[in-house]
Design brief:
GO terms for molecular function: rRNA (uridine-N3-)-methyltransferase activity. The protein is α/β, with parallel strands linked by helices. 31% of the residues lie in helices and 27% in strands. Helix 2 links the parallel strand 5 and strand 6 (100-105). The structure holds S-adenosyl-L-homocysteine. S-adenosyl-L-homocysteine binds next to helix 7.
Length: 233
């Protein structure tokens, strides 16, 4: 369970709302039952149900289980797509171990407003489900050309390009600071494609012969990079 306050042994954590309902009525926890908590700062803690009522419960933190995990240094740069689909991308990126989700505004991006709170809520839920103890960071939306101008010298930019000459990602993925760039439903313009390829750190990659939906391309690219270059192996 994610708790947005610094955890420590001996502190008491009040739980209410949906989380309380889940623990109390779905999991049917009783006083003394164990609950694992994380605060996205100090790792994972063990707590137990101290008291429980219809609408709320209180947990007592009893010990530290593990330090905050280190995830591979992979960013996902994705042009925002329709609401339900970008939520799905945020959830999959969290499950698959992405360190940072950076929405990129490109010429053909049709979604111009992003609800960061909603995306963060989806990532918290995904982390609780998959057992991550460090949440991906969620960057503010940035324009593609602004991002390229300040691109970090040491970070590879795997540019998912379905329309240009590109190598299979599995063949070129290397460990180290990395980012995967996925376009919007309408793809990249030729000018954008040239500007991205002009970056020394750019590595154009293909995800196969078919045109994948942006969200499919994002999940597939992250999984391929993790499997071939993620430093957790
Ligand atoms: N321009 C395409 C649609 C873009 S698909 C068209 O309409 O024909 C959305 C994004 O997914 C693309 O910008 C690209 O980043 C990624 N993508 C889709 N299929 C891909 C593939 N086979 N290889 C690499 N990237 C792909």
């Amino acid at each position: 369970l994610f708790v947005d306050t610094p955890l420590d042994t001996g502190i008491s954590v009040p739980v209410e709302g949906a989380a309380a309902n889940y623990l109390g009525n779905v999991m049917r926890l009783k006083p003394g039952d164990p609950v694992r908590l994380f605060d996205d700062r100090s790792g994972e803690w063990l707590a137990e149900v101290a008291e429980i009522s219809k609408r709320a419960l209180r947990l007592a933190v009893t010990g530290h289980l593990a330090p905050r995990e280190a995830v591979p240094d992979l960013w996902l740069l994705a042009a925002p797509i329709k609401k339900g689909r970008i939520d799905w991308v945020a959830e999959k990126a969290c499950e698959l171990g992405v360190a940072r989700l950076a929405p990129v505004i490109t010429r053909r991006t049709i979604v111009d407003r992003l609800n960061g709170e909603r995306l963060r809520a989806h990532m918290i839920e995904a982390a609780e489900q998959c057992g991550r103890t460090a949440l991906p960071t969620l960057a503010e939306p940035e324009k593609l050309d602004a991002l390229l101008r300040v691109w970090p010298a040491d970070r590879a930019l795997y540019f998912a390009d379905e329309a240009g000459d590109a190598r299979p990602l599995a063949a070129v993925a290397r460990p180290g600071p990395a980012a995967i760039l996925i376009g919007p439903e309408g793809g990249f313009t030729d000018e954008e494609r040239a500007a991205i390829r002009a970056l020394p750190q750019a590595v154009p990659v293909t995800l196969g012969p078919r045109i994948l939906r942006a969200e499919t391309a994002a999940a597939a690219a992250i999984a391929i990079w993790m499997a071939t270059a993620g430093d957790w192996r």
